[in-house]
Automatic annotation (TrEMBL):
This is Enoyl-[acyl-carrier-protein] reductase [NADH]. The lineage of its organism: Bacteria, Bacillati, Cyanobacteriota, Cyanophyceae, Chroococcidiopsidales. The active site is at Y148 (proton acceptor), Y158 (proton acceptor). The keyword Coiled coil does not apply. Keywords: Fatty acid biosynthesis, Fatty acid metabolism, Lipid biosynthesis, Lipid metabolism, NAD, Oxidoreductase. Substrate binds at A98. InterPro entries: Enoyl-ACP_Rdtase_NADH, NAD(P)-bd_dom_sf, SDR_fam. GO terms for biological process: fatty acid biosynthetic process. Pathway: Lipid metabolism; fatty acid biosynthesis. NCBIfam families: PRK07370.1. Belongs to the short-chain dehydrogenases/reductases (SDR) family. FabI subfamily. GO terms for molecular function: enoyl-[acyl-carrier-protein] reductase (NADH) activity.
Length: 258
């Protein structure tokens, strides 16, 4: 029943084979979606080569650079989608960043540049990309982003990223309200801790994972592919009545009091 055949899906945030975005891309491809992949460009082209080799088995029809701190690259990405696809059905937002120095110590010591950068990349980018995607989602669509429990509760060493995720979750609600009239649904997946390139910057990430394995009802954490399955569901007609929601995919950890 989960069929994304004929749907055009843009996936952001793939860095390596541990990325949650990679798990999502695999499951969208499995469901039949036509994929477009963005990568973060660098002077040496290292990331382009790494991501291109990784996603080759998924046969993406678009592969474009997109630094969300660069307005011209964002515009070029969506211009390319318009020219080559004509429309967009699915946008996957898996982008987050904070300086490592701002992910430890006292939250009150967060630097102004660090605070601004974390919210620009991790929160505002959803708003900007959704705004660019909106006119291309003429037949409706689905936008899915990734959040974490640290946006709702205090998590040691998460600090400024907790603020960014709280803003991201509220952005999901405002975007869902704005775009619902065009049959564009906007949701977030709150995934349990997974060892990724991004999460490795959070102090004690392995301790967090082990804690979830001990406390979560399923007595384990989740995998990238499990998050990918949830994303594919949210992007499909099976979730046609769901928008503005935070879906917890965390082995049940969120329900526990202690």
């Amino acid at each position: 029943m989960l069929d994304l055949t004929g749907k055009n899906a843009l996936v952001t945030g793939i860095a390596n084979n541990r990325s949650i975005a990679w798990g999502i891309a695999q499951q969208l491809h499995k469901a039949g979606a036509n994929l477009g992949i963005t990568y973060l460009p660098d002077d040496r082209g290292k990331m382009e080569k790494k991501v291109a080799e990784l996603v080759e088995p998924l046969n993406p029809s678009l592969f474009v650079p997109c630094n969300v701190q660069n307005d011209e690259q964002i515009q070029a990405t969506f211009d390319t989608i318009k020219d080559k696809w004509g429309k967009l059905d699915i946008l996957i937002h898996c982008l987050a960043f904070a300086n490592k120095d701002d992910l430890s110590g006292d939250f009150s010591s967060t630097s102004r540049p660090g605070f601004n950068q974390a919210l620009e990349i991790s929160t505002y980018s959803l708003v900007q990309l959704s705004g660019a995607a909106k006119p291309l989602m003429r037949d409706g669509g689905s936008i899915v982003t990734l959040t974490y429990l640290g946006g709702d509760r205090v998590v040691p060493n998460y600090n400024v990223m907790g603020i960014a995720k709280a803003g991201l979750e509220m952005s999901v609600r405002y975007l869902a309200s704005e775009m619902g009239g065009q049959n564009i649904r906007v949701n977030a997946i709150s995934a349990g801790p997974i060892r990724t390139l991004a999460s490795s910057a959070v102090g004690g990430i392995l301790d967090m994972i082990h804690h979830v394995e001990e406390i979560a009802p399923l007595r384990r954490t989740v995998t990238q592919l499990e998050v990918g399955n949830a994303a594919a569901f949210l992007c499909s007609d099976l979730a046609s009545g769901i928008t503005g929601q935070i879906l917890y995919v965390d082995a049940g950890y969120e329900i526990m009091g202690m």
